[in-house]
Specification:
single chain; 64 residues; mainly alpha; flat
Length: 64
């Protein structure tokens, strides 16, 4: 199953060119990151792996 099939299987349709662009984008990382950068990278990694992001994201219900 390719990336687009995986997205479609969970109800998301994505432009194939956009998916390819996002997968090929490489961030420029410093050779010696500051502790805050390492912490942010770890947190981002955890968020992207989370199967239920709503359990970790702050609720915005009623905040408007």
């Amino acid at each position: 199953m390719d990336g687009n099939d995986a997205l479609h299987s969970i109800g998301l349709d994505a432009n194939p060119e956009f998916v390819a662009m996002m997968r090929s984008a490489m961030p420029e990382l410093p050779d010696e990151p500051r502790p805050e950068q390492v912490e942010a990278g770890v947190e981002l990694g955890e968020l992207v792996q989370d199967r239920e992001p709503t359990t970790r994201a702050p609720s915005v219900t009623g905040s408007f």
